[in-house]
Amino acid sequence: MVFSALMERKAISIGAGELIVGERGPAPKGTPTFPELCCHTLSDLEILDSREKISYLVSDEVRSAYAESVIPFWQGKTMRERIFREMTPEWVAAYEAGIFTEFMEQRAPGHTVADGKIYRKGFLQFEAEIEEQLQALDFTHDPRAYERSQQLRAMAMDCQAIIGYAQRYAELASRLAETETDPTRKNELSRIAEVCSWVPAHAPRDFWEALQMYWFVHLGVVTELNTWDSFCPGHLDRHLQPFYQAGLSQETLSREQDKELLQCFWVKFNNQPAPPKVGVTAAESGTYTDFANINIGGLLADGRDGVSETSHLILEVIDEMRLLQPSSNIQLAAVHSEQFLNSACRIIRKGWGQPSLFNADLVVEEMLRAGKTIEDAREGGISGCVETGAFGKEAYILTGYFNLVKVLEIALHDGWDPRTQAQIGIHSGDPRQFQTFESFYQAFLEQLRHFVEIKVRGNAVIERLYATLMPAPFLSIIVDDCIAKGRDYNDGGPRYNSTYIMGTGTGSLTDSLSAIRKHVFQEKSLTMDSLLEALREDFQGCEKTRQLLWNKTPRYGNDDDAADELMLRAFHDFNAMVEGRPNTKGGQCRVNYLSTTCHVYFGSVTGATPDGRRAWTPLSDGISPVQGADRQGPTAVLRSAAKMDHAKTGGTLLNQKFTPSLLAGESGLANLGHLVRGYFKMGGHHIQFNVVTAETLRAAQAEPEKYRDLIVRVAGYSDYFCDITPSLQEEIIARTEQTRF
After folding, report:
1. Out of 385, 482, 589, 598, which one is annotated catalytic?
2. Of the residues 617, 633, 652, the one at which a domain ends
3. For this structure, is 482 an active site residue?
4. DSSP 8-state secondary structure symbol assigned to residue 631
5. What is the pTM for the complete model shown?
6. Catalytic residue at 387?
7. Which domain-ending residue is among 652, 669, 686?
8. How many angstroms separate the CA atoms of 253 and 246, rounded?
9. Which residues contact 494 (CB under 8 A, 6 or more apart)?
10. 565: domain CATH number?
11. Which residues constitute the domain of residue 594?
12. What is d(CA 373, CA 369) in angstroms, rounded to the nearest whole number?
């Protein structure tokens, strides 16, 4: 009923020259808040309005509405407040210390991607399927029949709501067409009216209707709940290819017209900023990006090459538009041609951060290992930054980042957190009393197990809160098998239900363990006591010790087994503690390795570490080496990273930074392609590139007005370098600048 009311009352507008219509807010770049999840305070609104970078304009009208109505109504009722009321003191202490983050305190579960069904069925057909399930309910023998009936009725209402929303646009376009004097625009508005009268009620009949069908679905999903990460169309090229071919053969749309429609589609994504965050993240979050990620290429359900003419058309659009949103990636399989790879690499070396590259064969292997069918695995792919899922069939929920390096810090202090001055961990032993590295490592594992238990227990509570209090009946319509089960997306309705915990700081953790093993236990060049003293003082007066740790330690990212074996050991131990744990929706918990920008936040709550890192500075990102620690070139980085068993994860993120001159000419292009192929043959999941020099980035810091169009790859997304926070700018600059293959 809420969704129906929203769709009846949402402000609608059609901009000059628009061909794809519909906005998240009342106009381009506008975005709603979701006080039922987390209610902004007046202080939050002031921060959002006044922060120096990536501000959100907050009008006096909005401030008054919040002060007089929104805040008083939602006080004590929001999902964020409910979550914190239900959490144990141990969970709250770990959260406040920076052991982990919690995504669903501010955003609803939403790592979901559309598959092809919305291009084959209209919402009248979905409504008919729902009605069949309602009629088939057995109230005599099924104890959940009434519950299912409520869910199905809600879904049926939402079918009518999205159809009604589109009809409002059809009527607006018709009115505008009546008064339009330009013949070309008059015809466009009449066509928009025709399109919106047909979709989403019915299945699309051509390229234009297919794009508009998806966009109405997208707006429905992101209006219903504030999903993390943004809903996206997944394999857009394969979904559009039949419409593209039909348009050309029937001469109803030309290639250039299809390209223009795609460009309009890209503009719609770019005009959809993510809803603003609350609390401390309102000040720290430095992007509008909503993390929609378009998949290009990959494998068809029968295993054939999924690259098509539309794939190359989309790559052209990506190259020409150069927008931050949507993110894009190519799904590269062994069967794919060098032409496809080279087309992507030619864009990458221009240096604006897109597309990223994924190993399509490994993505399928990851999903098979997690219990998907081969067909569902091939139809799946990537969303958000690097996360793997079965498109249109799975709720794969990210529950927050996990600070592996902070756990090591807690182990070095017998469960005590030096920053919050609290005993947040268990007593695992005074590290000064350990006689072997193995004894210390076991203490680290005890702390890790302790915090994983806290996190998993909290996740279970949050899952049930969302299942009972925040259903998503509209999203449930388009995700198999919610209609068949009569169950909600947030309550186990999808065919697959995965829960992810994201390990952060792989490089920093590995190098810290390596330093302790070598210098304290093997060579005994430092005592544990002297190491702890240096960390406590943030290496002030201990620069010789810091240089020893920084320069004389085997470091991850250099193809050095002495370090990489510790990476692999910690990876397997963390994975064993998480993988296979049942969630509350009939699925299982798994790990993945990405950090977005959380390695900066986690660094800000983590003191100096045994690898020579100073206190409060960023940790390593994704599975990338510590910034500046990889000294043997990119092939060594890839060989180190490939030692991890990526198939046991739901995704890993690897950043690399190259100088533009390294990729110049046909030889540079070929070398980049060989590097990617080599990494994927070794079992790597993902790789992405910044192609820029530190000199250019420093110049942009000094004179940002001259570099407004400088785009960098931050994590699983790109952003304008001049718009990101100073700490994140410094982290990107500090990444190793590869000058040779």
Report:
1. 385
2. 652
3. no
4. -
5. 0.95
6. yes
7. 652
8. 9
9. 393, 394, 395, 479, 480, 481, 482
10. 3.20.70.20
11. 83-113+393-652
12. 10
